[in-house]
Design brief:
Distance between the termini: 89 Å
Structural class: alpha+beta
Number of strands: 6
Number of domains: 1
InterPro entries: mt-LAF15-like
Oligomer: single chain
Order of helices and strands: EHEEHEEHEHHHHHHHH
Number of helices: 11
Length: about 325
Amino acid sequence: MFTVKCGATFLWHPALHHSLLLLRALKQRHTLVLEPSIISDKSKCFPRRVSHGSDWLSIFPPSTEDGRTCAEVGDQTQLKENAVDTGCLSSHQTGLRCVCEPQHILHFLATPSHSRGGLKDQIQDYLDAVVVSNEVLRAVDDLLVGIGSNDMEITRQQHGAMFDVVARLDASLSMPMGGANEGVGAEQAEERWSTWPLFTTMQFLVEEAGLVLGPFPSVANVYNLLRESMAVVKHKRFIERTLETTREGGRCLSEITTWPWRGILPEVQRRLADYNADFTQQLAGVDATCEKVPLRTRACGARFGVQSFAARVPWPMQK
């Protein structure tokens, strides 16, 4: 059984949900262990770099001492889909006792020789999706850095860059992933590993950052399709059941289970609207002043580049 271990204050992070949903897609038994956090200040419970999640997330493969110790205090949950299509290598075979990134779970998978061809294609698609999701999270990090600088012009540029990344993702979504009008669209998407890095990233942007998916119809189509899928519903129930079991066991967990900067995008957009309005008003005032004053009066005392000098006088001798 795989053991995913993290602090209770990091339930919002997409890497945690990515790991659990990937293990579910791989049909691997897994458990979640939540550790109590001693940090009570909401502003300090996680650094600003959302794309860095390896400092607090630990994924233990089966047959490890640390994994068994974690599983004893966690909520052990065996999936109903226990017919494993891909074999699982133990830590003794791989030499790895723990990984910190969701995509590194693939190091523990052993595949039959007859299915290596199709699995290779799916691994490549999955790694491409991981790269795209990391790019989106880095754009969120850059936006947070711009907000911390208290410079609205930098914030405006980083906000636009983040939306450009999401717009490129919206334009690149293919129809097999987003078949909203097809009854089997969600089932086909659940079987593909590349679904979960992108879904968990968009889930973070929508639920934690406050992104509105109206300008991104393809992303909204896929997100709404997967949000109601059976895999995501079971995943949310698993998270809730783990929280309840951990609290009933007498372990003191922090009440902070959301992103410290939750809902930051609507606030940033409100500030940018005020900033753009003030800038427009300033330009409007300058235009109004220029229209009321004649050109000769506005240019009074100015010294233009062309002056009335004798044609034969060289320019260094002009006074």
